[in-house]
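Slack export, channel: ligand-projects

TW: morning all. Re-posting the request from yesterday since it got buried. We need the structure predicted with the small molecule present, not the apo form. The ligand is magnesium ion; the SMILES is in the block with the sequence. No rush, but it would help planning for next week.
GE: picking it up
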Amino acid sequence: MRRSAAPSQLQGSLAKKPRFRPPGNISTSNLNEKINKMGPHVTFIEVGTTKNPQLHLQPDSGICNSVLSAATSEESAKEKNDVALVAAAEVAKSEEKEAAPGHRTKYFSVVWRKVSKKKHKKWEGDAVLIVSGRSFTLKDLEGRDIGKGTGYKLKDLDSLNEGETTVIGGKEIEVMGIISSDDYSSGRCFQSSIGSPCLTTSQITQKPFSNPVKSICKSNTKENVDDSPNFKPRHDPYAQNSFVMPRPDKSHQWMFNKNCLPLVDVVVDPYLVHHLRPHQKEGIVFLYECVMGMRMNGRFGAILADEMGLGKTLQCISLIWTLLRQGLYGGKPVIKKTLIVTPGSLVINWRKEFQKWLGSERIKVFTVDQDHKIEDFINSPLYSVLIISYEMLLRCLDQIKNIKFDLLICDEGHRLKNTSIKTTTALVSLSCEKRVILTGTPVQNDLQEFYALIEFVNPGILGSLSSYRRIYEEPIISSREPSATQEEKKLGEKRATELTRLTGLFILRRTQEVINKYLPPKIESVVFCRPGILQIELYRKLLDSQAVRFCLQGVLENSPHLICIGALKKLCNHPCLLFKSLKEKECNSSCDEYEEYNFSDVLIDAYPVDYNPVTFSETDSGKLQVLTKLLAVIRKLSPSEKVVLVSNYTQTLNILQEVCKRHGYNCSRLDGRTPVAQRQQIVDGFNSKHSSDFIFLLSSKAGGVGLNLIGGSHLILYDIDWNPATDIQAMARVWRDGQKHPVHIYRLLTTGTIEEKIYQRQISKQGLSGAVVDLTKTSEHIQFSVEELKNLFTFHEDSDCVTHDLLDCECMGRKDHQAESLEGVCAYRNCQLGPNHHKPDYKKPLSMSQLKQWKHFSGKYPNINDPFLERIKENVSFIFQNVTNQGSPT
Ligand SMILES: Nc1ncnc2c1ncn2[C@@H]1O[C@H](COP(=O)(O)OP(=O)(O)OP(=O)(O)O)[C@@H](O)[C@H]1O
Ligand SMILES: [Mg+2]
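GE: finished. pasting the full C-alpha cell output, ligand included:
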C-alpha cells in the first residue's frame, strides 16, 4: 500500500524530531525528594520540548481538537515498533563489515521512493542509510536491506547532507537527518517509536501553579469556565502533610482531556497517608503515573517488584482508593471496578488488608469463594473491587470477561512469566489495559520470562518475542559466555543497559533495606550439621551406584542425574524417606527407575534388617538431631516465642510433624493440600497471641508466598531449594512489618553433601535475582555439565564446611585478608578457624565473597556468642551468621 507520505513526514523532519530516548533509571532518592517537595505548592508539569514532537505542532488552544492526528501517528509508530528491534541486531553485526578502511561510516535517516517520472510522486517509506567509503546500504525500519551498492563516487556519498535528494541504487532518497553512530549501534535509530517516555517525576521541571483551564483550553465553552465545586479536589491539597499526585503534562492533557475539563488535584486520602512509609508514597506515585499513562505514551502497565514485606498490598489499596474516587480531569474518577487476582491463600488476606487500612465503610470488596459466587458481584452495584484466586479466575473466566474492569492487579504475578499456562492466556484475554503485576521475586530464571512479564503489563513494548530475542536476549547471553569476544561483550552490555533503562520506567524494585529501620534485628544463621552414621554409609553407597557412574560418564538419558539428586536430597533430610521410596518402588513398579540403575538392592542392604521407617530415629539424620535440640532450646529460652518450620516436601513435613508430636509441641500446618478456604484461618490462629501452637509447619512452595507469619520469630529452613527465591520467600514470612521480636532464621545444611553444593549454587544465583532491573550481572547455568555433576556427586566427608573451604578465608585476621575482600563490601570480620591453603579465586561470585564477610566459626569454637547456637553445637560442624539491624529497637 502506498502512503501519501512517509511517516517521518507526518511527524516533521526526522532530523529535528527527537530520537528515541531511553528512560533513565528512576533514582529513588530523587523521586523521594520530589515527592516531598510536591506538596500543594505546586507542580505544574512543563512539557519538555524534545519529548513529544506531535504536541509541539499544535498550538495550545488547539490541543483538544488534535487527538485524531495524534492517534494516527501513534498507530504508525506502534506498527514500526515491533519490527524495529530486529533491525538493530542485524545492523550492529553488519556495521563492522561495511566500514571501509580510512572512511568513517556515516548514518542518515532518509525517506525513499522508487525512481519514477510520475508527476505526483509519493515517498514510500522511512529508511536508514549507511554510507561507508564508496558503498552504501539502505535498510528499512525493520532492518531489512532494501538497497545496496558499491563503486559510487566518494564525493557523491561523502557530501550527503540534510535536506538533499539523490538517487542511489535505483531509489530516490531524501536525507531527513544524521544519525549518530551511538544511536545506530544501540539500535535506537530503529526504535524511534518504541515507548516514547513521558516526563517522570524525577524529570519534572517545576513552575508555579497556573490555572490549567486557562492555560490550556482557551475556548469559552461553559464547561471550561465552570467553577463548579465538583471540580474541587476531594481532599485539601494545601493541608499539612497532604499527599498530592503529580499533575499531568500538556501531552497527557491533550490526549486524555478531550473535553477540556478543569484539572483537579488528586490527593491521597489523609486517612491512609499517615500510615504510609516514604517508600510506599514513592511506590504509589510510581503506580499512579504508570496506570495513568504519565510515564510512557499509551502505556498503562506497571510492575511493582518490591522485595517481600514492603507493603505492596497497601500501596495498591491506596492507588485503588484514590482512583476510585478521584480523577485529574474534572475530578471524574479514573476507575470504577478493579480486579485483583491472587494466589488462593491470599484472597482473604487481601480483604483483611482493605479492612485494615480503609475500614469496612469506605469501600466494598468482594471475594469469590465457595459461598460467594461471582454472580453476586455482578448483580450488586455496591462492590468496586473483586478479589479472586488464579484458580477461580479460570473457572469464572467467561463471566469475568463480561465485566468491565478498569484496573487489573496480579499479586505474586511472577507466575505470568510462563506464557503457555492457562492463567496467563486467561488474563491476557481480559481487555483491561491498566495492568499491575506485584511480585517480590521477579525474574528468577531467564530473559524470556522477563519478556513475558513485560509483555503482559505493556504489550508490544519490547517488540515481538523473536525481535526481542535477537536484539536483547541473544547478544546478552552470548556476551556472558566465557568464549565471548570483546565486541560481543560490549554489545551485550549495551543491550542489557538499554533493556534495563527501557523497562526501568515501569518497573520499580526496592529492597528490604528501605524497611529495615522499622523492623527488629534479624539474626540469620547457616548451620552445617554433621550427617549421621547411617546417612554417611548410604551416601557413600549411593555415590558408588551405577546410576551415578552413568551420570559421570555423561549418560543422561532418562535423567538418571535427577533421580540421584532426588535420592541424595531425601537422604539428607532423613534416611527413612529414602527407605520408603525404595520400598514403594520395589513393591509397585515393573519399570522401576531405581531398579533400572541397580539402586534399590545396594541401598536397602545398607539399612538395618529390621529398619522401620515409621519409628525412625532422630539421630539417623544430622539435621533432625540439630533441629530437635534447637526446638528444645527455643522452648526453654524463649517460651513465649514461636517457630515456623519450613520444608518443601510433604513427606518431610510428615516427619517433622511426627517429631513435634513426640516432643509434645502443638503445631499447625499449611501445605499444598490445605484447602484454600482454611489457609487464612490457620495463619490467623498461629499469629494470635492466644494460640497454643509452638510450631507452624510450612511448605514454602505450596503456599508460602505473601503469607504473614509474624506470630513466629524463629524460622527454620529444614531443606534447601535450587531456586533461592523459594527460600527467600519463606524467610520473609516472619521478618516483616508487625514483627515484635528479634527474628532468628536458621538454615540447616548437611555438611559436605549435595545440600552444601545447592547452597553454593544458590548464593551465586542470588546475585542474579536482583537481575530484574540489573541485567548486567553474571549469567546462570541452566543445565548441569558433567563437570558440575561430578562436583554435585562428591561427598566431602572430612570437611567441616566445604563452603568455607571455597572461600579461601585467611583466618585469624591475617593482614592481607582485607585486601582480598571484594571492593570492601562489608566490614571485615575475623574467621576463627586456622588458615587453609587454597589459592584465592578472584572469579568467585560476589555473593560468595559477601558470605565471607559474615561471622563464621566452627562448631568446635568455644565461645559462640549466641545462646541458641551455643546449646546445639554438638552436632554442628560450622556456622555462618549475619545480623541485620543490630541496634534497632524491639
Ligand atoms: N505502612 C505500614 N505500617 C505498618 N504495617 C504495614 C505498613 N505497610 C504494610 N504493613 C504490613 O506489613 C505486612 C506486609 O505487607 P504486604 O503483605 O503487603 O507485603 P508484600 O510487599 O505484599 O510482601 P510479599 O511479597 O511477601 O507478599 C502486612 O501485615 C501489612 O499490613
Ligand atoms: Mg504480597
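GE: first-pass observations. The pocket of adenosine-5'-triphosphate (ligand 1) is lined by residues 275-277, 280, 306, 308-314, 353, 356, 440, 706, 708, 732, 736-738 (CB under 6 Å). The first helix runs from residue 7 to 10.
TW: perfect, thank you
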